[in-house]
Write a structure and sequence with these properties.
With 207 residues, the chain is an all-alpha fold. It is built from 9 helices and no strands. Helix content is 77%, strand content 0%.
């Protein structure tokens, strides 16, 4: 039986377009530090899909479904990380001037954005469980399950990068309009509250 790429693409598109913590992270980085930071965050988030795809293919993420303790540990670690990112945005309000200043575009900032995006995805047990439930329905040939899973994860990567990358570029273009006093602080505040809310929702999630 061959891969049902079309069916997977449809479900992956729905997952990609559904707004979540990844969208908030990309928007926050793009509006505060420019397109390079937003694209680095996007690359990190999307790279995490290969991590989840590999776990699913190897059966490791099955532990998250069969073991309540394993799921709980990863859920709390992931939730704590997302809440921490949100608190960073809120704490930055005290240091950020009312008038937006120049963006930070150093390689170190881009690498940090990439790692934050990767960890945000890798520490989200919901993504791992989703992949565990989804990929076996499409990667059905046992001998090539790892290759097929990575192929589907690659397709999801392309779709997610195109969507989130587009958001990052649009947000960067909008920074000219967002350069008015207090607007950037408002973006930080909204992003911080949203990330904390996503973290709390993840902590309270049930399988």
């Amino acid at each position: 039986m061959s891969l049902d790429v079309g069916g997977f693409a449809l479900l992956a598109a729905i997952l990609t377009l559904y707004p979540g913590q990844d969208t908030v992270l990309v928007l926050r980085n793009a509006t505060s530090a420019g397109a390079s930071a937003g694209l680095a965050k996007t690359a990190g988030v999307c790279s995490g899909l290969f991590f989840d795809g590999t776990l699913s293919a190897l059966g490791v993420s099955a532990i998250l479904v069969t073991s309540a303790n394993a799921f709980a540990v990863l859920r709390w670690v992931g939730a704590a990380y997302v809440v921490w990112l949100g608190l960073q945005s809120l704490l930055r309000l005290r240091a950020r001037p009312a008038v937006a200043s120049g963006s930070v575009r150093s390689p170190e900032h881009a690498r940090r954005s990439f790692v934050q995006g990767l960890l945000s995805n890798a520490l989200n047990p919901k993504t791992a469980v989703f992949y565990l439930a989804l990929l076996p329905q499409f990667a059905v040939v046992r001998e090539t399950v790892l290759t097929d899973s990575l192929l589907l994860a690659g397709l999801h990567f392309v779709m997610s990068f195109a969507w989130l990358g587009g958001i990052a570029l649009l947000a960067d273009r909008a920074r000219v309009l967002l350069a008015r006093p207090g607007v950037t602080r408002g973006v930080d505040a909204l992003a911080g509250v949203a990330l904390v809310a996503f973290g709390v929702r993840l902590a309270l999630a049930r399988r």
